[in-house]
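2 proteins. here.
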Amino acid sequence: VQSSYFEFETGYVASEMIVPCKAYWVKVSSAGKLVFNSNCVGAKTVLLRK
């Protein structure tokens, strides 16, 4: 991970915490997986590609 995690409000802003079931954007240096466990119904693992 090369950056902060960002959420979208009126624009992209750095997030201070990760909240389950909310979407985020992050810059990474290579392909891979970021996996966060939560109790969110329908949660999925997303494969990130550079």
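next one coming up
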Amino acid sequence: MDQYSRVRTTLTTGTLFLMVISACSVSRNSYAVQSPNNKVDSSQKVINVAPATMVKDAIRLQGLIMSVKGKKDGWYQYQFQVNKTLKYGATFASIEPQQEEVVVLNTSKKLDSKPGDEIIVDVTTPRERHVGKLMIFKVSE
């Protein structure tokens, strides 16, 4: 084995080692979000209505259902106060609701949650902010 082959082998081995270490640290951090399979966390009283897998264009929010607005154009509408952003989809590039902002949550099916319940939900948001409250749409399973 000549000098250049040893250098190339050392660099390749070192690069692979760094890639494995990076992948381990990334995968450890990606599981920091609460498991979507837990529907109710009894210690926190937060109801998880997010699907098991994250949609790439969505954002995962935790917030409070303030009131039920009713049904409009086939959508169930809720006043929803955003408490925090938990996770972003891989290609999320639209409007992120601000913390404590009250938005209109649209769902295709009626939620089992009632006003006063804190929920975790995956939603899509518009690309531009319009006049009035921000309209967000729950991602269906």
